[in-house]
Amino acid sequence: MAMKNLEGEELVQNLRQLVISCEPHIREAGSIENVEETLHHLEENDDKFHRYEFVRQLKRKIEEILGPQIDEEIEKHGGHIDNGHETLVSKITDRIIKSKPYNDLSKKLKGNVQEAVTELVRNFDAEFGTGKHTGIDTFIPTTAGSLMFMKPDYLQQVADKISKSNNVSTRRDALQNLNTVRVDDVVTSDVVHVVKKHVLDALSDTDEQIMNLGLKFVTRAFSSTSPHTKDIYTLKSSLPKVKNGMDLSRPEIKSLLKAFRLMNEFQLETTNYWIRYPEHYLEEVLRSTLSLLSIHHTGTAGMFQVLSPIHFMALLDTRAQWFIKWMHGHFSRSFLLEQLTDYKPFVEDAVRHCLEFSAARKVPFDLMSEISDKVSKTSYAESRRSYYTGAELEYAYFIHSVCVIGKLLCFKNGRKFFPIKLKDSTEDVSIKKLMVAMVLVVVDPGPVFHQQRSSSAEIYDPARLVADVLKGLCSSEQASEICLFKDEITSTLLSPISHYLDVAEHQAPDEKTLLHVADILSMIASSTKGRRHLMYGEKKDIFSRTKSSAAHIIAEFTKKALLRELPREAGQAPTHAVIGAYLYICRQIYNTCEGLLVLYQYELHKVVAETWRDASRDLEAANTPTPGDDDSSSDNSSITIRENYDVAAWEDTLRDNLLNFASTAKGILLLQQTGALNECMVSKCEKFGYGYMVTQVATTAPGMAALQKTGYMKALITELWAVLECGPNDITLFTPTHWPVDPIDKTVHKHLIRILNVLSSFPAVYELLADTRLPTKQAYGFREIPDTMAYQIQEKLLAAQTDNQAANKNHKEIIVDMLSVERNNILVRSYLIGGPSERVLPNRHIDDSGTPYSFPLFSSFPIPREYSPNLGGRSAMKQGVGSTNVPCLFINLLIFLSFSVHLDNELTEFLDARKSEKGRAWLDKCQTLLTKFLTSRGDQVKGAVIQKILEQSVNKMSTIPEESVFPLMQFGGSDSAVKAVSLSPLQMLGIKMAIRYGIHLKAVHTSSDATDSLTYLIRQVKYYLEQQQKTPDSQLKYMKNGYRGFDWFAATVFLIFNGNHDKAWDFLQGFSTLGASGYLWIPRLHASVHLPSALSASGIHPLFSSTGHNIEFILQIELPLVSSAFKMSGFTPAQICQHWITQCFWNYLDWLDICHYVITCLIHGVDYQVYICVAILRHLQRDIMSNMQTQNLLLFLKEEPINNFKISQNLKYMQDLEKKYRKIVLPDMLNITRP
């Protein structure tokens, strides 16, 4: 058999090429066990495998000898083999392997390869080496002839020649030979201790080449992924001893520093790929590293100090980036924390260094300013720094330790290491003790840090570094709550500003210290739990009003600093930067409802407004040219420009912080009372994150007036027209775009919602559009924006429906399309009033499946009866009820009657008793019975029972001083005077709708008589209330000529008393003395003489500033998800609740629940108005979250009824809220008469 190119010298050359090419793959295998596996998969891993001459010749010979036999076998089975015939392939392969041609080829090839390998081994140095090997007898071939191994005495020979007793040349050659040997082979040999000793000598050798060769051996160990890498770390056990510092000019120090640098680079890079390896690899790397870094040497005074591995690591990676990277991902963090339990000295020594530094706080003046940039990663030139003192090394150690501990405390398993028992310490070190020590570094860094330092030294300022670590800890709310939110820690942190308040004897803190403290406090205040810790302390008692909490100290310091009232003996006054930083912390607190309640007593809105006006005057004076300005020198000019810039920045800071009072409903009132609302709104409306605040402002009449002056409303309209006309991209289109099928294009939806958000309250809309007339035209163009509200919307829609009719046999039918369906929905909504079960609202969508539209369309009033269900039964438009078991129903009815009769007798007997309790005793008993009755059979509290409760409660509660807040004003108007009172078209429309609703409820019967009676009542009430109003000195349209809206509460009372004018009037007149009247009866306090002048003239009703504020306050605590959903949607809870309450929940609740709302707020307390709104939002939580996602929250809350909500079913939840919040809410609502 001819074996061309596979025998003789040609085969030797081909094998030589293959062996040389395979060497990198063999070395990468890492262990002997892996070499065979690597060679088996060489074809998969080597892209050049098929280019090797040996492989090419072998493939040619196989094809030549075995190819015909393979083709013959395939032909026997049909001429082809599919991918699915693995069994057939195996059978053919077995036949080929057992054939004679294959056996002859294999035998011949093995013999030729054996001879070639023997030839290569015999001439190894000539074939592969460079003349540096000791001889061919050191290697022997394996039985397979594919691998080469060292003789046992080879490493012994190399180790002996590395010894310092040999000459330099011999040692170099031996080290070169050692670097060709796999590290694993060295570590597992019997001479490993000798090798390590001589390698350590090489690292400290004066000959640079020997030192580099020794370093190369260490580098190979560090760069290897072998689990034996840790064994090379034992070289650290003989680190050099230093007395005063680290001299980089010493060869052994330089080589070790290079080795640690390589190790650090490996630590930073290995996180990118260790997920690819087995967990065993990660464990070995972690164990090896921690084993090395856990070695710490301690000595007595006067003895040589021994550098530990951490000193080198701290010098190279001062901020412990390697540890932070390893703690970043869960994969490595879990293993690292588990390994640290076995290497606790690493953690203990870090804690010890932190405590020792905090106790001494002595650092060299230069603060290691050149650590990072002087220890080069590429060279150690003469121009670079070459010496670090012992103090500098210890300081680097401290920085490294702080960063390690800071990251460790961020995680639950990391905090399990505490408390830590330290050697030579009688007490365990808790997290709180450690944090106090760290905070001391920030607030009192020592006298050396008060000196002027270079900019590079500031990078390693201990206060700055520790502050960064503490701020990083604050980024995790859970970790910061456990570690930082402690009274002792906060008290220590506040000590610099307490100095100004207490005038302590020690040195006043400098500006940097105050700013570091402010940064940490700001991070704490950025989270909900942190903010509450600052307000209430560690106990988090929301009702505590102690002035020792952090928020009070910060507010007092800020107020005195703004007013320049800090004691002179306390030192130099804080700069604007410091004051601004602490004012920002106050802002983080007062822009929340509960925070404003805490800081309200400091009247920061007045202080900031006053300071802002002073800054504005200073800025105006600075910008005003004065004689002699042109003669000033360039230096003076630059100083003036810088000073003007500082003044402008200070003025802008104050205005921005003042505007943030508008984040809450009560804050808007405070801002309006400062007189700075208009100025604050300028240039701030479009700032990122201010959308929610703008919506809050736009809820009020003065807020809308301020927005209108800034041009904000015009900008919104312009943006909307732009997207309507041009689309998202105003570019030429060569192909038509897809026509949107949604009711509104997504690009327009956002801009429309923005307009609706700011125009969702009646006071705002009235302020914007009132008293402006449209030009008289037959038709208006699309760009002619109406400036007044049109009351003929219904007529226009009915006319459009008429025009959309089509003849069908003997009558006309309205064509069903999207426009006619939408018009139909608007007409029904605007005509009918009723709760979820009192009216049927037609669908706004057409079924795509072809199902006919089931709701009747109409083109004239009255609307079809299908939309007005019979309240005595079930409407045909409602889903039917299934069959009922009559006997069971009869039994249940008997049980109900026997139970309800007892309750009814108990409640009616109480109300009908001739001799009953007086004052508070009557009210308490009424509350008990009403609660019992509502929670058991709430649907029975109706009709005469409600009338009696209303009539008697007014008489009884008027004798209770806490309830009777306003004086009883006698009505002095004559009948003619009452009839002369003019009502606006809007109010007349309200009367018509109320009567229509009353007839539907069967509360009134005759339309004409009821209309006349209600009209007289509305006029009488308006006359009566205008006697108690004063003309405010205000330019607001909303505040002129009395209350401009419809009195929905008076209409509600009128229907409760079944259209009896006298009873309704008697109740309203008596009710006007109670504090509850100011919140249930909206016109009651409009421009009222009973309110403080500033509140009365503000145009902001207490319903918004008090009820709305308290609703948002409770939501932030009880329903944070709902509160966040409102904020993300740019819509406010106070907005929608004001809307609901103003119209007395008409269209949102059924009539019975509206009555229950009135008597609940009257009997249980007016604060139940807040609890009812919170209960409703809790009931709607799921719908609120889903509509927030689709950006339809405003539309949902404004247009949809509140389905399945019953006052009686939620009374228990309201009582729970009362127990928690009445101490805050009720006094806030009833103290509105106080200045």
Automatic annotation (TrEMBL):
- BROMI C-terminal Rab TBC-like domain residues: 901-1232
Please report the stretch or stretches of sequence annotated as the BROMI middle region domain.
Answer: 155-797
Q: Which domain of life is it from?
A: Eukaryota
Ranges of residues in domain BROMI N-terminal: 13-126
Q: Name one Pfam family in it.
A: BROMI_C
Write down what this protein is called.
BROMI-like protein
